[in-house]
GPC5 protein
Amino acid sequence: DLQICQHRAPTCCTKKMEESYQAAVRRERTQSIQALNFELKYMIVGHITAFQEAFESLLRFAENRTSSLFETAYRPMAKEAAEPVKELFTDISLYILGAETTVESAVLRFFDSLFPLVYSRLINPGITDLSEDYTECLRLTRQDINPFGHYSKNMVTELSKSLWASRMLSQALSLGIEVINTTEHTALTKECSRALVKMQYCPHCQGLTLIRPCVGYCLNVMRGCLASVSELDAQWREFISTLEYLTNEMAASHELEIALAGIWNSINEAILHAQLNGPQLSATVDKVCGQPKQQEGNLSSANIVPVKEVTETQTFVMAHTSLNNKRREFINYMKRSRTFYASIAERLCDGDLVMRDSSTCWNGEDVV
């Protein structure tokens, strides 16, 4: 009553053993593919982590630099500006990691929060009553009167351009992991599991436990079993080319590092612009939001303190170099995996599974 290992000679197999063999080949095939995938997956996961650490390091550096700008040049509003600064960099981090947000919304939300502080602490430092309604009116007015000139829009443009490749790379790496995980759990067809049993275990039914499959026979069986997986070859090659393009885009321009390091300067220029146009802004705000309570003898606009660039570059250079090295290592490794899905059958037939350097092997029917 054997269905797979039918043979003229007497056999030591039963139908139940054939069923056990089918379960065994399914388990072994999944384990073999997982073992092949492990190195590739390990490298991608490792680089996702390394990229994220390098991004976070650059973001922390840029955030610290921005915070120190407020503490040194705009002390009256430093404490209240801390939260909007933190939110801005959290939003940028989430954007890079693929969250459903935009650079524009993050930057404009920051300037919406910043304007009430600039207006009440720098342009009109005598304001004592900054109610919720008045603050909200200032936030909404910011969008109409554009107190920060072209600096807010320039910041959106610079960051959008430079963060795009980082966001795409982060999403592409996650997609790569998803593809690999999916191929590990590809179900074997009934024909495939029978062919694998015939190749690996039918010799056992004749007592031939040391004979292994012939190389050509193994390749034919594996290629048939993994036809759906090897169909990924063209798309996988395209995926590697896209990764190469993204990493080259990032490495060639250094825009990410420059844009992040320059955030503090864009904010500084924007605040200076608002201060210089203080009287016109006050006149417009008074019409739209009304006049808030002020202290006697209104203090004139706070002294404008232009900030010279801080020479705190060591951390930035280290994070920048680290990111570049990781890009280079990663893409070199991924280029070597270009034929990963095309050669999966060959790699599964390599090693202990087939008989090498021997005159005898199993061809599916007999020892040859």
